[in-house]
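Appendix C reproduces, verbatim, an entry submitted by the partner laboratory led by Prof. M.T., so that reviewers can inspect both the input and the predicted structure.
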Amino acid sequence: MTEIATYPSLRDAAVLITGGGSGIGAALTRRFAQQGARVGFLDIADAPSQALVAELTEAGHKVAFAHADLRRIDELKAGIAALREQVGPFGVLLNNAAHDERHAFADITPDYFDERIAVNLKHQFFAAQAVLPDMQAAQKGCIINFGSVSWMLGQGNMAIYTAAKSAILGFTRSLARDYGKDNIRVLSIAPGWIMTERQRDLWLTPEADRDRLERQCLKRALVPDDVARTALFFASDEAGAMTNQSYLVDGGWV
């Protein structure tokens, strides 16, 4: 596996990751664990999550998993409480979980709207709410919310998703203002088209790939580690003066 920078301030940090069992989330879990952090992650998919825990535990890392359907705030809170018991009060939160299901605007129902908002926005609010007391007690912390460049591109056929992802920018800036007095930093990362297995299986076509490469400044595929490297830096003390901002990891697509 490619070597990356080491951040001493992340050693023994207690890190919470939502959707940490696959895709970008798995890269986050793996890379923070390799920094020596104590990582707890939530996911709805048991098999890949348990396999990831087994892999990282065998390698000597400290990782715990709790099953949770993040659309259910009671499950989210219960999962966070269970992970806190295993890895300690949280100093870093990575609000990664999302689901970019396509949908025709004319077909949206109120129930579908609520479900899409729950999976792409609502849980970020309540995950932050659950860990902020830990960070306030320590007078230090970092929350990294995950947005998307999709709304900046004006991407179609996913109006609820793009609405939710654009809202994360405002959410991030509000939290940063409210909790800066407690030395808690709040940032957001807006990934571009990251080539996870899901993206390759569902959305990647030769035509779409050509369009992406034409518009990106960097003429290569972006991978989950591109996002994980950025998150490591932001969560570390090396970024100790950075808050209230969003950073695009999109290869210069926007």
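The domain at 8-197+224-249 is CATH 3.40.50.720 (Rossmann fold). Additional entries are available on request from the coordinating office.
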